[in-house]
């Protein structure tokens, strides 16, 4: 049993204020950078205190899950401000021109050094291709593969918010794209904020990745194939709710998954924790750690 | 349409304007710098704000009353729009903390839960409904009374709508605290909970506020619903909450929608006949080259759906992208209007406005955008009136 927290973590109230001040010309980039470092230090402490198995950097400088990759790639542009799923957070939808290529991998500003075994979160090729008209496999090969090859991480989590809502499937396209990404660090496909019930029926578990993540606030435990041979990233923290989870309930749910023959489980949120405040997210991570301990007992 | 039969479009603002540094710092209890005072001086002269020298004196004092400074900021923002030539104005939220936080802070049944990103470095505070909700006091009355005394142009007043307040809040009151894992809570359960919270807000918070504003003399109330399309399967809740809020009240009610897939609203809003005007952002999705054909105006393709609504509402046509410093030229504004008139066929069903509130832009940028919006509107009128005159010769 493992636990960790991929995705974008909320900024502290101090960092919120610093970035607001920066936009209004009331502070310097250096002051914001210093606050980012303080936020990162606090996030690492929270994860370590919770006993999480892989550290995450919280993507504190990422404006959305696509932006730094889009800006680092030739042939990708940031497009219209677009509502992110059914949240009240917006992102710049990627748009494409030609055959996008990563010009250079993201630096330490976007993938921050961490004091221990870590994960890195990147957009899934299907998500990155969403709305661009570009084949996910082309984006995987031209943009994501060189990025993945450049990171030093135990696990690369490919965040996939759109697959669960895709009207015309998408698993085949995604599968072909994921084939391009193997051979490096272990890969997880993290299907966030949506039901994977139908996706499991369609073969989600057979995708060429080492781990599959699903949102268990929208997905039934019974949808997970019995004896799943891959690590299951079980989305058991609801990143869109301020209600704190009960560790005992999560532990009991993990037991239910084990009864289905799922041997390798990692407890994770069901999406980016940035949809709750830093204070709420911190409490949720503490409870995630307790749930892992209870589930392992 | 003007009294002489010529086409005349009404221009109006939509919502927020940036708060000046002398208000922000005063509200935060921070000292002012000379540049902040100069800002008040320069803009006071530029906009010819009556008595602005008094504000400058106030700002040089160590002790300042934040409410008094906010009222000065309201005067400046009214004058900014009047000076730009906008017909129907408001103060751009100068006396409110923010469109969500203000409403929640003056209501019962909510607790704060921290700050959430809206986009990039923009954020909003978010609260949780933790019990039965109700209005603590009519929370726009003081503001509206003051603005009535200060505005030279016609006023309207925005109020954040019930569905947006609900969907921007967590719900710890109607949703269970446990038992949701593993699909234990169905989507229908979530929708039912949202309906209950939203209609409670409509009945117990929004409607009493509307009644109070009408009693003060408000003639145009804009119910802001930027969150309306958040959940595709909850649009009927948005419609029902609007109807519950306004039914039987005598006022010009409009709503503001922005940054959504507007196709989602149809056919749901066919049942929202009490809404006389929809003020909607389109420029964000549009090209910036000139042209009046459908191909040249991709951001406006969807407007025909408002044309076809059974109760013939007016469309408040968003022509300014509020997310960029790009200053739309008068000619670009003109072409967007001309395209809309071509689609609607009836100029009387078009008003002209920004996509949304301009609070993320500096006053310099907002002022230039609004001036060009008005100038572009005049160009569109000239074009249409010229064509009309030519056709009737």
Structural summary, described in words:
- Chain A has 297 residues and is of the alpha/beta class.
- Chain A has one domain (2-11, 44-296): TIM Barrel (Alpha-Beta Barrel), CATH 3.20.20.210.
- Chain A contains 9 helices and 9 strands.
- Chain A has helices spanning 13-23, 29-50, 67-71, 125-129, 136-150, 171-179, 197-202, 247-259, 278-296, and strands at residues 2-3, 73-83, 90-102, 119-123, 155-160, 186-191, 211-215, 231-237, 265-269.
- In chain A, strand 2 (73-83) and strand 3 (90-102) form a beta hairpin.
- In chain A, helix 1 (13-23) packs antiparallel against helix 2, helix 5 packs parallel to helix 6 and helix 8 packs across helix 9 (278-296).
- Chain A is globular and about 55 Å long.
- The mean pLDDT of chain A is 96.
- By secondary structure, chain B is of the alpha/beta class.
- Chain B has a single domain (10-18, 84-392), classed as TIM Barrel, CATH 3.20.20.
- Chain B is built from 12 helices and 12 strands.
- A 7-stranded parallel β-sheet of chain B has the order 1-12-11-10-9-8-6. In chain B, strands 3-4-7 form a 3-stranded mixed β-sheet. A two-stranded parallel sheet of chain B has the order 2-5.
- The longest helix of chain B is centred in the middle third of the chain and has 30 residues, at 187-216.
- The A-B interface holds A 10-11, 13, 16, 19-20, 22-24, 26, 63-64, 80-83, 86-92, 195, 197, 216-221, 236, 238, 241-243, 246, 249-250, 253, 256, 274-280 and B 21, 24, 113-124, 126, 128, 167-168, 170, 172, 175, 177-183, 185, 227, 229-232, 259-261, 284-285, 323.
Oligomeric description of these chains: heterodimer
- Distance between the ends of chain B: 20 Å
Strand proportion of chain B, as a percent range, falls in: 15-25%
Gyration radius of chain A (Cα, Å) is 18 Å
> In what order do the strands lie side by side in the largest sheet of chain A?
1-9-8-7-6-5-4
**Count of the separate structural domains of chain A:** 1
**Low-confidence parts of chain A, pLDDT < 50 over ≥5 residues?**
none
Order of helices and strands of chain B: EHHHHEHEEHEEHEHEHEEHEHEH
Name the average pLDDT of chain A.
96
* Individual helix count of chain A: 9
Q: Tell me the radius of gyration of chain B.
A: 21 Å
Helix content of chain A: 25-40%
Overall, the morphology of chain B is: globular
According to DSSP, the number of beta strands of chain B is: 12
Q: What's the CATH C level of chain B?
A: Alpha Beta
């Amino acid at each position: 049993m493992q636990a960790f927290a991929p995705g974008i973590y909320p900024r502290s109230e101090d960092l919120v204020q610093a970035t607001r001040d920066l936009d209004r010309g009331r502070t310097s980039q250096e002051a914001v950078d210093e606050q980012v470092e303080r936020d990162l230090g606090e996030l690492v402490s929270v994860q370590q205190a919770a006993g999480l198995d892989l550290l995450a950097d919280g993507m504190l400088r990422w404006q959305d899950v696509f932006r730094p990759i889009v800006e680092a790639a030739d042939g990708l542009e940031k497009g219209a401000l677009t509502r992110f799923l059914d949240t009240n957070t917006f992102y710049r939808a990627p748009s494409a021109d030609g055959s996008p290529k990563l010009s250079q991998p993201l630096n330490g500003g976007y993938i921050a050094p961490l004091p221990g075994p870590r994960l890195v979160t990147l957009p899934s090729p299907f998500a990155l291709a969403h709305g661009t008209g570009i084949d996910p496999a082309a984006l995987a090969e031209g943009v994501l593969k060189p990025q993945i090859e450049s990171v030093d991480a135990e696990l690369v989590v490919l965040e996939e918010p759109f697959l669960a809502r895709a009207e015309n499937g998408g698993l085949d396209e995604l599968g072909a794209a994921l084939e391009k990404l193997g051979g490096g660090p272990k890969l997880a496909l993290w299907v966030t904020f949506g039901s994977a019930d139908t996706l499991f029926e369609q073969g989600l578990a057979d995708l060429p990745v080492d781990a599959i993540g699903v949102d268990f606030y929208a997905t039934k435990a019974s949808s997970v194939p019995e004896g799943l041979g891959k690590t299951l990233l079980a989305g058991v923290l609801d990143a869109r709710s301020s209600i704190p989870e009960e560790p005992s309930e999560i532990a009991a749910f993990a037991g239910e998954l084990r009864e289905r023959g799922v041997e390798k489980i990692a407890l994770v949120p069901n999406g980016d924790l940035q949809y709750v405040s830093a204070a709420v997210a911190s409490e949720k991570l503490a409870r995630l750690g307790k749930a892992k301990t209870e589930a392992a007992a | 349409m003007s009294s002489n039969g010529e086409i005349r479009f009404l221009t109006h603002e939509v919502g927020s304007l940036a708060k000046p540094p002398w208000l922000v710092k005063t509200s935060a209890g921070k000292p002012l710098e000379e540049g902040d005072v100069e800002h008040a001086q320069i803009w006071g002269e530029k906009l010819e704000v009556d008595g602005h020298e008094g504000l400058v004196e106030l700002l040089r004092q160590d002790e300042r009353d934040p409410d008094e400074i906010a009222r000065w900021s309201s005067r400046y923002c009214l004058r900014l729009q009047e000076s730009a030539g906008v017909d129907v104005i408001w103060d751009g939220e100068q006396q409110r903390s923010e469109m969500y936080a203000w409403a929640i802070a003056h209501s019962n049944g909510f607790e704060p839960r921290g700050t959430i990103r809206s986009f990039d470095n923009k954020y909003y505070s978010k609260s949780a409904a933790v019990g039965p909700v109700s209005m603590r006091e009519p929370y726009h009355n003081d503001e509206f009374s003051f603005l009535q005394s200060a505005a030279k142009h016609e006023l309207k007043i925005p109020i954040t709508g019930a569905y947006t307040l609900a969907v921007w809040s967590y719900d710890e009151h109607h949703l269970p605290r446990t038992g949701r894992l593993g699909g234990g809570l169905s989507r229908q359960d979530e929708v039912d909970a949202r309906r209950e919270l939203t209609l409670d807000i409509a009945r117990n918070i929004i409607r009493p506020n509307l009644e109070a504003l009408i009693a003060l003399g408000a003639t145009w109330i804009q119910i802001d619903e930027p969150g309306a399309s958040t959940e595709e399967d909850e649009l009927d809740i948005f419609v029902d909450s609007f109807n519950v809020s306004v039914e039987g009240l005598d006022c010009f009610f409009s709503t503001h929608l922005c940054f959504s897939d507007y196709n989602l609203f149809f056919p749901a809003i066919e049942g929202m006949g009490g809404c006389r005007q929809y003020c909607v952002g389109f420029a964000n999705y549009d090209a910036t080259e000139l042209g009046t054909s459908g191909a040249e105006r991709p951001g406006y393709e969807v407007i025909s759906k408002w044309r076809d609504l059974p109760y013939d509402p007016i469309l408040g046509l968003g022509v300014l992208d509020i997310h960029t410093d790009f200053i739309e030229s008068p000619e670009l504004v003109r072409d967007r209007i001309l395209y809309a008139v071509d689609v609607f066929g009836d100029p009387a069903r078009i008003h002209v406005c920004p996509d949304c509130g301009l609070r993320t832009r500096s006053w310099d940028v907002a002022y230039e955008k609004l001036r060009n919006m008005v100038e572009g509107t005049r160009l569109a009128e000239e074009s249409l009136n010229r064509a009309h005159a030519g056709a009737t010769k």
